Fold this protein.
Amino acid sequence: MLYRKTALRVAAPVAVLALALTGCGGDDKASGSADEKPQAKASSKPSPKSGGQLGTGESATGKVKEGDAKVTYEITAQKVDLGTEADTKKMVADPKEAKGLVPAIAYVKYTHKSGPALTETPDANDGARVFADGQRGTLVIGAAEDAPGCEDASSIEGWKQGESHVLCETYLVPKDAKDLEIQWSEEDGEPFIWKFAAK
């Protein structure tokens, strides 16, 4: 399953390399939401109901089980920052694992749209992942919380409607990757996809 326990993120004293070995793509066969409304035209942002590609700055809407309740978030992938092989060596136990790989930090903004205020560490970012040239990267748990512009999910208290937070995830990707994607999906849902050029 693409989702990890929040406790792993909170408890990890150092970044631990977690092998996220799944197939390419995120082509889960689950059906999307059945309550489709006609989409507004003109300046309204498109928000596909069951995944799809979005442009830079466009938002998706998704539901996440937070504790015992569902919370609806507006999700916007902002950017992917690439590091260096030297950065990777600091994140892994065996320097050989760093060869040819660089960290890709995904910045995703979440706005609480409906549902109760959170009483625990949010799980909204558990649906985020990074792909490079069509291949899913390898997740590094606990590595992005101190990156500039990223908030530590474990320090967010009482997240309520109208509030926004930028949460980040770090994945290792090939250093020569050309095309990067941030994907986010509800549990068992089709992914929303934002594409970014590697810089």
User: Anything to note?
Assistant: Residues 85-91 form the longest helix (7 residues). The helical segments are 6-11, 85-91.
